[in-house]
Structures are given as structure tokens and as C-alpha cells.
Amino acid sequence: MTKKEIATMVAETINGLEAGMAMVGEKDGQPSVIIGKESVRPSFNVTDDIANHVNACKNEDVYVALAEVAADMRAQYNAASKANPVTRENILKTAKVCLRRTGSGRETDVTKPFAQGIEKYIRVDASDVQENCSFILTNAACKVAEVSIEEAWLSAAANTSADVSIMSIVDVLKTEGLLPADMEVEDPVPMLVVTNVAASFGAGVITSEHVAKRIEQMLGESNFAMIPSSIHEVIAVPLDMALTNSLSDFVKEVNQSNVKEKEQLSDVAYVYNAALGEFRPIA
To answer: Rounded CA gap, 210 and 212, in Å?
Structure first.
């Protein structure tokens, strides 16, 4: 067996581990937690085959490398077998409201409409299983964890409102090192980048009325325009900018040139109506 074939087996095994860490589905028609031991076992058995092949190769360098990989995989496997993010406590504590294109998920996902072309869904932290890992909440997961859909939405809304980052575009550029930190720059047009602290799946913070009011105060307007930058963040600008510029054309151009397809949120810009508390596409 070639080194390439052995490496391929290792990669497939690791992928199997990662894919099975925090999945929830059905078994025999009933909601079931498919995590750790249950989901990883079919792929993890490949490790024994790898060990046998490596021994047969009689190549010490390859053996040592694969032994280290196998040990690391077994540590992940053991951790996954013990960790279980699909619990009532974890869902209520870590659930967050996120945004995506309408219909881009599964029918079993817990969702609500947000604006034309955009829907809300809930994402739950699973970092106990794997660092920076999360999963999309489904009806099956709610049944397993004995969490009602209403409870999930209430907790997700509260958690989302507590994890917010709103910065001017100039401050964001300074934070990312694209502008000198001590450089004084006047915004010709106020632009606010709205996301969560981690700037990951953070576009959902715009669903909070509390966040909308903060934006109103910072822009000095009760109504404003929202540019759906990506599933990770949105940009808020004064309404007059939206009415005098082709923002929706701008969104389409940016999506096509700078945003990965799976991270695109919408191809149009939106206006926030404070009186109705809703976002409508800019015609």
C-alpha cells in the first residue's frame, strides 16, 4: 500500500470523525442523538486497518506518523463519546439566532421568516465536542433535549442580544490593521458593521429590536438601510444613502466578486421601518 493510499485512509477517517461529532437525526422513526461513539464507529474502525497496513510496510517513519495520527484520533473519539451538546441546558444557554437565504437549509430545521429572501434559524454551540464547532437546531434535537420550539427561540433571542458588536467601518479597518490605529479619518457616510463579538454567523444580531434601536441612535435616524454583507455580518447606513444609490446592485456585485456562495445572505438591500419593526427590500 502506498503512502498516498495510507494518507487517504487517514484523511477519510478524520473526516468521518468530524462529520459525526454533533449530528442529530432519526433512528427507527424516532429522534436520536447521532454523536460520538455511534456516529464515529464505522469510520474509526479504519484506524485498525491503517495500523495493520503500516506494520506491513515496515517503514518506521510512516509508522510513527500514522501512530501519532491514530492517537490523536482516538483522543478525539474519546472526547466525542463523552461530550453531548444536544442537551436542554446547552441549547438554552448557547443557542443564537442566525440568518441565511430562505430555503437553503433542511425542512427539519427550526426556522422563521425574517425578511423577503431571508430566514432565521438557530445555531447551538458544540465546542465541548470540537473547538469552534456548532450545529443547526432541528426539531429532532429539540425533542431529544426536551426543549420546546418556543423556549428555543426565546433563549436564542436573549443570547443573541447579549453578544453584539457594532463598529464604524473605519474602526473595523483599524482593528484589522488595514488603517493605522492613530489615523484620524472622517466618515463621509456613516457605515456601521453589525455582527457578534466573534464575527462568525453574526448577521442574526440584526434581528434584535435592541440592536435596531442602538443603530438608530448611532446613525441619528429612526429608519435606516441594511446591506446584507454575508451570513456573518450586515452593514447599516443612513436611509438617504439607500435612496440615492443603487445599493441592491452594489450587493449583487460584492456577492459575485468577494463573498463565497454559501456565505451569501441576499442579493438586495433592505430598509428598516421602525414603526413596523421590519425590514423590506429596497425597490
So the answer is: 5
- Write the CA distances from 112 to 96, 120, 153, 213, 262, integer angstroms: 13, 5, 10, 22, 19
Helices (H), ranges, the chain: 3-19, 37-44, 46-57, 60-82, 88-94, 139-145, 149-161, 169-175, 209-219, 239-244, 247-258
Tens of pLDDT, residues 111-148 = 999 999 999 999 999 887 777 788 899 998 898 899 99
Q: pLDDT higher for 102 or 185? A: 102
User: pLDDT tens across 192-251, in order?
Assistant: 999 999 999 999 999 999 999 999 999 988 889 999 999 999 999 988 876 656 777 788
Cα–Cα distances in angstroms (integers) from residue 227 to residues 70, 134, 264, in the given order: 46, 26, 12
Cα separation of 6 and 57, whole Å? 10
Looking up cell 418556543 gives: 150
Spell out the alpha helix ranges (H) of 20-85. 37-44, 46-57, 60-82
Task: Tell me if 269 sits within 8 A of 282, measured CB to CB.
Answer: yes
